[in-house]
Fold each of these.
Amino acid sequence: MAAEGTILHADLDAFYASVEQRDDPGLRGRPVIVGGGVVLAASYEAKARGVRTAMGGYLARRLCPEAVVVPPRMSAYSAASKAVFEVFRDTTPVVEGLSIDEAFLDVGGLRRLRGSPLDIAARLRDDVRTRVGLPITVGVARTKFLAKVASGVAKPDGLLSVPPDGEMAFLHPLPVERLWGVGPVTSGKLRARGIVTVGHVARIGEAALISMVGQGAGRHLYALAVGRDPRPVQVGRRRGSMGAQHALGRGPRTPEDLDAVLSELVDRVTRRMRAASRVGRTVVLRLRFADFTRATRSHTLPRPTSHTPLVLATARGLLAASLPAISQRGVTLVGVAVGNLDDGRTVQLELPFDGWSGAELDGALDAVRDRFGSRAVTRGTLLGRPDPVAVPLLPD
């Protein structure tokens, strides 16, 4: 008999939009779009009209003219996320956060205390609804991949358990795009050869897949299609980078405009790093051009840091090197990330360290902003400019 499925994938439904509907009863049951220039989130009422995350605001409002457009409230979303993760950790100590609104939980060994995995999942959904006021979908399965697919199929506000003896019956009829790693390019290659379901991927075999999509991707897709995913839920897993990005729209931007955006992004990222006691070595600049192509530039520092001026100087150098391409092609999005993160509490300080250090100054500014708001202390270049629109970083 196959082992019982004890992995849960818990995923909040239309997270930002759900928080807005929770906090404003007048928005409940109505189509809600978070973000004006770019859609950061859409309620399911708006999704039913074709609105999607990362869609331009003009197109979204044309598809759903009756939608209520609200500005993002990142502090509210962060608070809601923390509350939900408290529910996760009250359910089981084995929690692996994937993003602000989803996590894997391993509930193996809790049957005598809390019941079956399906019972635990149902109680988790009730607890999130009662304690945080948000809908959440949960998938239950033997592997991480199957649990995530189950939650995707069960959305919105659902619960789906995949029994070990019914895995292939559940998985194989699904479209090939349900496999992790199948984006538009890979999907096009597979569908051009008549491979449209996960079952087709399993039946065609690993060797044929490798010849179509390459060795790494072929082995990976075949393993998932036949139910192989040995990855455990990793407790305390910490992200390898922290970043933020800003949608600019399609209008022209001067170098001064871009520097102001870059400064604000670096301030935000380094503040988050210090709050999490993280330091990093690799500064990454991401650009999306007006022709929808993308570019990434990076520079690795000799030692890890979370010092804002040092990260900003590095990011400015990367931006300066990109200005010729920006002037030719235009730019619609700027992103900054710091990678190669380490624990900031274990980093060797440099000598001399007497006097008022940059780290102390950063900490003092963080304290002022925590108490009086993120705009209480700001850069001169940002005065008179509208608050930037944050866009969630998409995985590489």
Note: DSSP finds 15 helices and 14 strands in the chain.
Amino acid sequence: MVESADPVQIGHRVRVTRRRRGLTQEAVARRAGISRPYLALLESGQRRFDRSGLLTALASALSCSTVDLTGEPHPSADPSGTAALSLLPAITAALYGCDLDDAPDQETRPVTELLASAHRANRHRDAARYGASAAGLAPLLTELHVVAAHGRDEERRQALRGLALACYVAFSLTRNLGHPELAGEAARRCYRAARRLEEPAYLAFAAWQYGTALERLGAHRRVRALLERTVDEVAARADPTAEDTSVAQAYGMVHLAAGLHEARTGGTGAEHLEEAAALAARTGEGGFLRLHWGPTNVALWRLATEAEAGDGPAAAERFRRSGVDPGALGSPERLGAHHLDQALAWGQAGGCRDADAIRCLRLAERAAPTRTRHDARACELLDDLLARAPRASAELTCLRVRFHPSHRE
């Protein structure tokens, strides 16, 4: 219950968030499991949010957190994400509270300690331990800005590398927890740090995530321009036979992002996929910044890209027969994302492969529960599966409860 909350203020936040995401009342009401007239009354403040789980259902439908709607902590759609969500205000303040050209003058930890903390946060992110990844991230972002702005020579360069990585962690957390605007700001900060660092591996790494963030915000023209510019800038230095293949690995990720973006905007992404596959065949599996670049990840991206182009069931079947083991990457977060891509691909079959979609959705949740339960695509797929099911099953009912706590009533 949220009896103490102001229904007018919450309704206003619901309306503003819905409009910012370009969603109609009909679409949000359907996702939240309520009627459009009821949503209209809630938005206008004429009805209270007095039903258990209603705020959580609306937050899930709007791909945000309950904190965004109430201004104060409330249980999230996934209890395991509560710790990370509670730290988002501090992370937001850190990202907007300083800049490389306007950093505070304060004491910081040694840059080697800061860099180690950034890598530790990235390991937690890769393991889908979002609470642990978010812990300490806000002060880390501030301190890295300070050293990157005021440090000298190699100390400054180390801070810029650490800042790019810490911003990547912030980007991943906020994107996967339903805060695309904040993810966009984190990715922009990463890109600015990489630009100032002037190292091609970090530039391609930052462009890959910045392009991903811009795409989530609908800035398709800028995505294309950014990725094309990065390909032109980095191609000559992306040597897959070099002793250190970091540049080639990050450059390959740019091609994967460009292919996926092309598939989402009417193309196939085939040329970018082939470029990435040829590059991965020469570099082998790589470990730069836990991007998991290599032939295995290219195969996972191929499935996602072909599914985006509308060839989901066939792409999922091809992947199933390929023998590629996504678990070999050792990344719960990446494994969860892949299984969700599989579920979405099977879901395109219109019902005849729903058993496979449910199986993959369950695997995604098992690998990365917080990430999966906060993903709007997963929730929409679950709604479709429920609507198509000839009768309620225990498995679907359990998934519905975990993804939509309002259904516990």
Note: The radius of gyration is 21 Å.
Amino acid sequence: MPLPSSLPRVEITHEPESTSCTCGCELKRIGEDVSEKLDYTPGVFTVERHVRGKWVCAKCETLIQAPVPAQIIDKGIPTAGLLAQVLVAKYGDHVPLYRQERIFERAGLAIPRSTLGQWIGQCGVQLQPLVDALRQAILAHRVLHADETPVAMLSPGKGKTQRAYLWTYCPGAFENLKAVVYDFAESRAGEHARAFLGDWKGRLLCDDYTGYKALFAQGVTELGCMAHSRRKFFDLHATNKSEIAQVALEHIGQLYEIERQVQALEPTERLALRQERARRVADELHQWMTQQRARVSEGSAIAKALDYSLRRWAALMRYLDDPQVPIDNNWCENQIRPIALGRKNWLFSGSLRAGKRAAAIMSLVQSAKLNGHDPYAYLKDVLMRLPTHAASRIEELLPHRWRPSASN
């Protein structure tokens, strides 16, 4: 692959020590061979010297001076570029602050992790309006995914950690918005999902966790996840080679094969193919599951696997009648993977407030990635523009609408 043309080039020439031939004639240059090698210089820091000239009138002694440029952190030393690097390193590349502190030390800079933490907190506050606007953009869609994953949070005054949760919300996999919003909460109580969704009354794809049940009683339509149903049978088959589980997996595999074929189709075509082919497979699977459930022992592992699907069958099958609904919740679970990687490195959140700041930053980093942006370039540009950007036009800075400023 050729190296990107956007990268700066440093030309190094290699010529013979002598251009005289052994016969005594002068050699003539007839061409050249060019090869390119990729170099990298880690930890390159530069200092911006902001010089504000003072101008005075010799007659009336009026003094004028250009105002101090607006910054995310007033009177602080970090530029938007350094702040973006710290944020992306921690929440995009999962590098804890103590490791970043050591990286800066190798470059000759003493920046304590406490200072880095303060920078992150201040950026989180400034970026929160973008996340609020992103939440509103997500809630404008009628099909949403939701999931939650545990994270450790330091208990105030106890010196120990407790289990908190990072709730994840994103538009349906077939919606025209690529975005994700993480919501940090101190528990897994369903009230957190209800507070986030507010008056939203669309179709919610999630697992069978009871915390979502109150939403369905309030007008939200439940959508089941076929991947969770399949997982019950997969675990049984992997453990004891259950023949019943194998047959269930074969039927579910046929449904997924049809989904692979309709992924790129237009909604009307997707719906037609699902009705024509997937409906028949699903009806056969339901009839077979009902027959098997009558034959297996109550309380057995295979009975529990069958009950999981049969109890949620209506929710699992709603995707057949709506081309905007995916077959499973894997799209949302994929957005949780960066969190799983991150918590293995930064281990815990220092407080509820710190967790909420982290969730805001992670929402923008992951949404930038989903839209094909370099999260560093995105955050640097946003942090430069945000101090003077009109609140009424905050949507312009959202990842799915962002365009780099002319200076970039």
Note: The radius of gyration is 29 Å.
